[in-house]
Amino acid sequence: MPKIFKLILVLFLFSQIFSFPVGLAAYEFSHYVMDARTGKFLYGKNFKKKLHPASLTKMMTLYLIFNELQKKRMKLDDLVTISQNAASEPSSKLWLATGQRVSLRTLIRGAAIRSANDAATALGEHISGSEAKFADYMTLSAREMGMSKTTFKNAHGLTSPNHLSTPEDMAILARRLIFDFPEYYNLFGRQSVSALGKTLYNTNRRFLGAYRGSDGIKTGFTSLAGYNLAASASRGDIRVIGVIFGAGSVALRNKRMTELLDLGFANASQGTNFIPLSSIDLIPDLINKAGRNSLLNFSAIPVRRPNFLRSTAETGYEVSAQELEKILESVEETLIMESASNLNLPGASIFKEFNNPIKRPPSRPNLLLGKQIVSGVDTENQLKNRLKTKILVGFYYSKYNAEKDLPSILLSDSSLLKNVSTEISKEVFRDKIGFRIKIYPLSELNASRACAKIRSTGEICDTVE
User: For 236-249, what is the mean pLDDT?
Assistant: First the structure.
């Protein structure tokens, strides 16, 4: 017994000494709160950054199946044959078997309540024929809703390259679900449902039972995304929607959501009129009438390549100067005719405009380089004197959190990307000691502009001489 005790003690001490700091396992955290009546911003931070949405993805999958039901193109009792692709999805899942026939009603309950990945994939395949094609349909539907920063690559939300969204976009989607399909939205507020002879418990039941007025909507988690949540609550005539990406645990996620929705109710105005959502017409062949799995038909058609243009590898000889001149003339003519078409002008009139001689603009003064002297003044010293402003960003209780935010801060304005120094400095702010991000040297104009952009995201920023 003493030997076992010593072994346990040694292992415990070893784990304490060599364990990684908690901060290294932290997820990138962002959040957004919306007034559901108007779709207007109430509070948020980092909410435009593209991150992993995890199972919040299933909100779009369910939206599109609700759309099919509302348009009467499908029925809840329709049977879906489970593909091998759907059956092989990792958990969480309903453990559906290849070839099994399951009703739409069961798949919807599984995806909404249990967050079942096999159910979500089966729904997507049933709508579009394949998961890849359905993912394109999801992305195009997101654009129709105004979700400009979202790209879907699957129906369930498991981590996939370029499968990204933002808290702001997910709030837009949640609002759509609430008001476009009120007859189905109530499903997200149920504590449990029955399916396939089993009771499925809502993955969001803790928050639903704890927060007054909460009635939905969806949780999400992956090892890269962290703990995500889209939630909505109503009190009186006020309804707010909150979205969290990257919480560290279920408990922290629920705690942060409670704080966010409280802020939302505090900031929302009484008696605000509801702003109706614009009507959108979504059909599974929205991609294109041919039904190909591609988004290319929504891109501009490039200028046609001249028939006589061939590469050296194809023809065995290089293009001559005369041929190159002919190519350029052909491309110019094509561009001019396309411009005329876009402007609803006859080709001749626009050719006339292009043939008019163009006045050459005045030559630009030579750039001052090195220590060139102008009027007896050292230009390099002039530049140094102008770049004497610095900015202090954020306020953090740990240096690690400041370092984690630094890259996104630098990306907020082009003036912070080159020829600047950064420093995490200990500062006193509002009688508290913490860490702030210091960026310098900047011109007064660039510092003011950068701070304005940073403040617009909800972050603190001060300019200092």
Answer: 96
From the list 58, 93, 153, 390, the catalytic residue is 58
Non-local CB neighbours of 417 within 8 Å, separated by 6+ positions? 410, 411
Fold of 382-464: Alpha-Beta Plaits (3.30.70)
Identify the pLDDT of residue 363.
Answer: 57
Q: Locate tokens 């993955």: which residue? A: 203
Instruction: Find, among 309, 333, 313, 336, the residue nearest to 323 by Cα.
Output: 309
β-pair partners for 426 = 435
At 111-163, the pLDDT tens digits run 999 999 999 999 999 999 999 999 999 999 999 999 999 999 999 999 999 99
C-alpha 392: how far from its chain's center?
A: 27
* pLDDT, greater one: 387 or 218: 218
Q: Which of 30, 49, 55, 214 is catalytic?
A: 55
Structure tokens at 178: 């609430």
Spans of all domains in the chain: 24-270, 382-464
Interatomic CA distance for residues 90 and 93, integer angstroms: 7
Catalytic site includes residue 198: no
Q: Indicate the SS3 state at residue 400.
A: helix
Q: Convert the pLDDT of each residue in 318-367 to its tens digit.
A: 555 666 666 666 666 666 666 555 555 554 554 454 455 555 556 555 54
3-state secondary structure of 448: helix
CA distance readout (Å), 166 to 36, 204, 259, 294: 17, 20, 19, 23
- Tell me the β-bridge partners of 85: none
Q: What is the pLDDT of residue 234?
A: 96
55 labelled catalytic:
yes
Per the annotation, the verdict on 115 as an active-site residue is yes
- Report the distance separating Cα 177 and Cα 187, nearest Å: 11
* Angstrom distance (rounded) from CA 203 to CA 219: 7
- Supply the pLDDT for residue 318: 54
Q: At a CB cut-off of 8 Å and minimum separation 6, what does 217 contact?
A: 59, 174, 177, 178, 185, 188, 204, 230, 231, 232
Give the CATH number of domain 24-270. Answer: 3.40.710.10
Which entry of 115, 141, 165, 214 is annotated as an active-site residue?
Answer: 115
